[in-house]
Design goal:
heterodimer; A: 8-stranded mixed β-sheet; 4-stranded antiparallel β-sheet; 12 strands; globular; B: 292 residues; alpha/beta; Rossmann fold; 8-stranded mixed β-sheet
Chain lengths: 320, 292
């Protein structure tokens, strides 16, 4: 079980600090696959990264993260080390480039495990079993990364990242660079790993809502460094309450929708600069429902069990 | 107008170019004025190579590509320049299409110097603002540096750059794959508007939903071979080739969830690539490859 409360992460830049993550609170249950979605710059990747390793430019400003009852020392790079890989693990965005090109895959995995004080040979049978679960033969361990396709590399990295049965796995845009067939395999692999208990819970960061609609139990929508809406997947897709979620869903071309028949609207305008974000609701400049009260910041509150929204008009929506 | 006639492409590989790999096999299609044709396939299907051959960035090994009846591989000098006045391309990564140390307006000055030096200043400025207007940008955008603009804005600038030339064919190679959902739809709608003004677009993508939204005709490529082609509603509404079906099955939909078995079936998209066979007319405006 992961609980994040009022987490604030800023980026240091020459122009000042960019408030990429400005007070977010949520939790992920054991066994839950939570999708984390939003447009570029909304803070979704920052959130994913903050839970495992702060990059140099990232600055911890406040908030708390607890995993299975223990506080994660995310602000302390060295204190985080015992947690990484064993308790929290990540499949990075470009998993293809995460593999050492000069090592055979098996040897690379051994070296990585030995660096953590684990003998590679003891985990070898389990490693091969898990590769097989994802449709990969043990032969890949004798290969160099260049010999595998993008989707295969992605799956190898998934097996490696979860080899020590971490409690939380962060999958950062793992399907984005793949074409539909490999995308589906990787998506299926994520669910398979959760079902087999290799990882307890998962945060799947992506801008692709259609893939989340397939695999996520719940979806968290972010906008400009804040949480906009969180609900079970079906609710987000079929009955979203935040105007941003609705517009985002409305701008997705599904197979069957044609430009001639129905022109999808898109969302006018651009997200605000996070160097100096506006007061109140950050979506209000682009929001078709904005009214006087939106200059005050809407709280992220429950409008139904398991359904939280930060919008003054959310209640009205929920009632139809 | 633009015809790709029985084109094949052989790449040389190996240390001394001794090995040959045929990556495009006998591709044949035509693009009519005001038509959007999507080339759809996975990585390695050759869709980008076809686009590059049309732009003459890659040579043709067999067959020919003609524009208004003229073989484009024979164009030289001013004839080639006039080809580029009518056929232009926009590519996947807008950030790498601009030089980061110059303001974005520089690409337009280059275009003017190379192609439109005979225009006087007033005529040039009318044309420039017309092109920027068509993509929904202000002239002031030209004074920005690439890092000050979003991917969608840069991509629209690149489309404007092509429009300045009065082009008739635009090769759009994965131009929205890197953009967000909301900016994606803006660029797609822009392409739709340009199409209704008579521009032909060759839309290269691996995303079937995007290809479906915008195109009149679909060409499905598998390992350099056309396996199915025809009107969009025919190919997507009534897919005949197993490869097209497996691609369509792998597209995630918002409102229907894959069953557990479907999701975890790793063998779902099996390697059905087969060479040989020939395209037959399944119905009017719908060709399918059969193997006998």
């Amino acid at each position: 079980m992961l609980a994040v409360s009022d987490l604030k992460i800023h980026y240091r830049t020459l122009a000042g600090s960019v408030k990429a993550l400005d007070g977010v609170s949520f939790s992920v249950r054991d066994g839950e696959i939570m999708g984390l979605a939003g447009e570029s710059g909304c803070g979704k990747s920052t959130l994913g990264k903050a839970l495992i390793r702060l990059e140099e430019r990232m600055m911890y400003v406040g908030g708390q993260v607890t995993l299975d009852g223990a506080t994660l020392p995310i602000a302390d790079d060295r204190a985080m080390n015992p947690y990484r890989f064993r308790h929290v693990s990540i499949v990075p965005q470009y998993a293809m480039s995460a593999l050492n090109p000069t090592r055979r895959i098996g040897r690379m995995i051994n070296e990585l495990l030995e660096a953590r004080g684990i003998k590679g040979a003891t985990l070898r049978p389990e490693l091969e079993r898990r590769l097989a679960v994802l449709g990969l033969t043990p032969d890949v361990l004798g290969m160099y990364p260049i010999e595998l396709s993008g989707g295969m590399k992605q799956r190898v990295v998934m097996v490696l990242s979860t080899l020590l049965d971490p409690s939380l796995l962060i999958a950062d845009e793992v399907t984005s660079a793949l074409d539909v067939a490999s995308q589906k395999k990787v998506a299926g692999a994520l669910v398979e790993f959760r079902d087999r208990g290799y990882v307890k819970s998962m945060i799947v960061v992506t801008h692709d809502l259609a893939i989340l609609a397939q695999i996520a139990d719940s979806i968290l929508i972010m906008y400009a460094g804040k949480l906009a809406e969180k609900a079970p997947t079906r609710t987000i897709i079929e009955a979203p309450a935040h105007p941003y979620t609705r517009l985002l869903l409305g701008s997705l071309p599904e197979v069957g929708i044609r430009f001639e028949d129905r022109r999808l609207p898109g969302i006018k305008g651009r997200p605000p600069s996070l160097l100096d974000p506006p007061q109140g609701c950050r979506f209000r400049d682009r929001c078709p429902l904005a009214f006087g009260k939106c200059v005050e910041e809407p709280p992220f509150i429950d409008i139904a069990p398991g359904h939280q929204v930060a919008c003054w008009k959310a209640d009205a929506h929920a009632q139809g | 107008m633009l015809k790709v006639e029985n084109v094949s492409k052989v790449f040389r590989s190996g240390a001394f170019g001794g090995k040959k790999a045929k990556v495009i096999h006998d591709i044949d299609f035509e693009v009519k004025p005001g038509e959007v044709v999507s080339l759809i396939g996975e990585s390695g299907s050759g869709k980008t190579t076809v686009g590059r051959m049309i732009l003459r960035l890659t040579s043709v090994s067999e067959g020919r590509i003609t524009f208004d009846g003229e073989d484009i591989s024979k164009l030289k000098g001013s004839a080639l320049k006039s080809y580029y006045r009518r056929v232009q391309g926009v590519f996947q990564d807008p950030f790498s299409s601009f030089n980061p140390i110059f303001k974005v307006g520089r690409v337009f000055r280059t275009i003017r110097r190379e192609f439109l030096s005979d225009l006087d200043v007033a005529a040039w400025e009318t044309r420039l603002s017309g092109a920027l207007n068509a993509v929904g940008l202000e002239v002031s955008a030209l004074d920005k540096y690439p890092h000050q603009m979003s991917g969608g804005q840069l991509q629209r600038l690149l489309i404007a750059r092509a429009l300045v030339l009065d082009i008739r064919v635009l090769v759009a190679d994965e131009i929205i794959s890197m953009l967000d959902a909301s900016t994606r739809i803006d660029v797609l709608n822009l392409l739709g508007d340009l199409k209704s003004k008579g521009l032909s677009i060759i839309f290269v993508t691996h995303d079937l939903a995007l290809g479906n939204y915008i195109s009149d005709r679909i060409i499905i490529l598998q390992k350099g071979v056309i396996v199915e082609m025809g009107a969009t509603d025919r190919v997507f509404g009534d897919p005949q080739h197993p490869y097209t079906r497996s691609l369509l099955d792998a597209v995630p939909h918002l409102h229907t969830r894959w069953s557990d078995a479907e999701l975890k079936d790793l063998g779902l998209v099996t390697d059905t690539a087969r060479f040989g066979g020939h395209l037959i007319e399944h119905r009017e405006n719908h060709l399918v490859r059969v193997y006998s």
